[in-house]
Amino acid sequence: MNKAKELHVLIKASDRACKILALNEKAQPCIWVKDLNAILNNQSINKDVSNDDIQNDHVTQVKKSLIAFINVYRALHDFCGGDTDFMVHWLKVKNKSFGVAPKELLATDENIQQLNQYLDGRDVSRN
């Protein structure tokens, strides 16, 4: 799969996950998509080589972040048995392990990794 197609699939998957999880536009994955779109639009206008390198690095980082977010969605889906209402509820309610609602942890890559580790380590039977 070429890079443009891969990026398109990641953006589409992240957008769909945001909608299913009832995340508003202030959620980090939505910001990444808007930020990435702005970069890609600027890249097609500005052909400065050094600027392209910076933009490509940013696009690579955004792709990694989108993959991490999609992994949170996958792990949450498994943890909740595919029950989207419970998935939304789990994200919105304060969690003792984090001290905040898990939705608040979607603001940084480090916290998204923390969510992934937490969900991957949980038993899918909700115990």
Task: Explain how this protein is built.
This protein has 127 residues and is mostly helical. The protein has 5 helices and no strands. The model has no long low-confidence stretch (mean pLDDT 78).
Write the SSE topology.
Layout (H helix, E strand, L loop, with lengths): L2 H18 L7 H18 L3 H31 L4 H9 L16 H12 L7
Helix pairs in contact: 1-3, 2-3, 3-5
Concise account of the structure shown:
Helix content is 69%, strand content 0%. It is mostly helical and 127 residues long.
Termini separation? 39 Å
User: What structural category arises from helix and sheet content?
Assistant: mainly alpha
Q: Largest sheet, if any?
A: none
How would you describe the shape? globular
The total tally of domains equals 1
- The percentage helix is 55-70%
Number of strands: 0
- Please state the average pLDDT score: 78
Count of separate DSSP helical elements: 5
Give me the Rg, rounded.
Answer: 16 Å
Beta-strand content bin:
under 5%
Identify low-pLDDT runs: none
Q: SSE order, as H and E?
A: HHHHH
